[in-house]
Amino acid sequence: SAACRVVVHVDLDCFYAQVEMIRNPELRDKPLGVQQKYLVVTCNYEARKLGVKKLMSVKYAKEKCPQLILVNGEDLTPYREMSYKVTELLGEFSPLVERLGFDENFVDITEIVEKRLKQLQQSGCSRVCVAGHVYNHQAINLDNTTHVRLVIGSQIAEEFREAIYTRLCLTGCAGVASNKLLAKLVSGTFKPNQQTVLLPESCLDLMRSLDHIQKVPGIGYKTTKRLETLGVRNVCDLQALPSAVLEKELGVSIAQHIQKLSYGEDDSPVTPSGPPQSFSDEDSFKKCSSEVEVKEKIEELLPNLLDRISKDGRQPHTVRLTIRQFSSTDKWFNRESRQCPIPPHLIQKFGKESSNIISPLVDILMKLFRKMIDVDLPFHLTLLSVCFSNLKDLPSSKKGSIGFYLKQMSPPSTSGKQHSYAFTFLPQEVE
DNA sequence: TGGGGTTAT
DNA sequence: ATAACCC
C-alpha cells in the first residue's frame, strides 16, 4: 500500500510570553505583554482576554488594558535558547526537524508511523484512537491505511506536546497532515494548547476555509498585491484562474507553485535545519546621523554576536552590514546592505577571547558603511544590523575542536537515529 | 511595526 | 546584493 508522508507542525503558544512567565512565575496569572520598542510583539492569553493583540502599539494596548504588565523582549537570547531546546527535543524523535522562526517546527514522522503500524499489524490490533481533534469532525475509516497512519501521527504529536510540556514547561499546538502546508494550516484550527489531524478528504475544505490568499503560507504581501490586480481574492479564485494567465503575471515557476498550494499540494520535504546559517544582531532607533554614532551602535552590537558565535564553535567567513534610511513614505522597506569576506587572519580569532578582534571588525564594518553612505552628506538611519554568515567548521585535525568531540560522541550506530545537531550548543568548556 | 531567520535570483 | 518569503 502506498505509504503517505506524515508531517507534524508544532507551534508554541505565545512563545515569548511563555518564556517570560517561566523566567518570572509571578507573571503567570497576570496580563503580560512582551515589548520591543513601541510594540507589544506578543502577549499571554490573560492579556488577550482583555483585548490586547499581537503587534499592537504599546500606547493603544495600555489604553485598552491599563493593568497590562510589559517586559522588554528586545534581547532575544532567552527565546533563542529555549527555541533550540524545543528543536533538540523533537530531534530525539526524528532527525527530520525543520525550524520556522523561533516557535515553530516541522517534523517528518513517516518512518516512526510505519514502525508503529507494523507493530500494530503484527500484534493483530485493529483499534487505534485519535488524539486531539479531527478537522471537520470527519469520520475515521480504519480500513483506510492513510487514515490509520494519520491517526498514529496524532498519537505521536500528542507525545511531542507532552514531552515539550513535561520537560520544558511549554504548551503549544500541533497539526498532523500529509505535507507541511496542510500540517501548518491545520495546526491553527484549535488554539491554545490543542492539536488537530487533517484527513485527505477534508483537504479542499481546509484550503477553501481561508478567506484571503495571504493566509496560504508561501503567498506573501507582494504576490497577494499582484494577484489582486488579476481579481484574485480568495483561494477559490486562485484555483479557478487559468494557469496561462497566472504564468504570464508571475512566471511559470511561481505560478505553478502557488496554484498547487491553492489545492493543498506541497511536495517540499521537511529539511533538517541543523545549526544556524547566520548570526545577526540589529537595533532600530529614531535617528542616527553621524559616523561616530554609527560606530558606537556597531560596537554595541558586536560583543553579543561574538559571544554567540564563539559558543557555536564554527567560524564565519563573511560579514554584512545592513542599514535602513529614514523615509516618510514607505516606512519599513528601504534596507540596503554591503558584505565582504572576513580576512583569514581575523577568521582564526573567532572563538578566542574576543577583545582583539572587535576593533578590526569595527573598521571593516565602517568601510562597508562608507560604501553605502557618503558621510560628507547628511544622512538619517533608523536601523543598523550586523550579520555573520558563511559559517565553516573548524579544521577537524585540530584537537579540542568540535569535530573531535563530535566523532567521540557519535560512533557509527546500527540502531540509533541520534539527532545530529546537539553539538550546536556544546559548551566550549569541554576542553 | 520588532528582531530575528531562510531561499531564490 | 537584493527580493521574496517565514515567524
From TrEMBL:
**Keywords annotated in UniProt:** DNA synthesis, Transferase
In this chain the UmuC domain maps to 7-220
Region Disordered, as annotated, extends over: 264-283
Keyword Transferase among UniProt keywords: yes
Question: From which domain of life does this come?
Answer: Eukaryota
Asked if the Swiss-Prot or TrEMBL record annotates the protein with the keyword Transferase, the reply is yes
What is one process in the GO biological process aspect for this record? Answer: DNA repair
Q: Name one GO molecular function term.
A: DNA-directed DNA polymerase activity
Which family, according to UniProt?
A: Belongs to the DNA polymerase type-Y family.
Q: What is this protein called?
A: DNA polymerase iota
Say which species the protein is native to. Answer: Pterocles gutturalis (yellow-throated sandgrouse)
Positions spanned in the full protein? 1 to 431 of 647
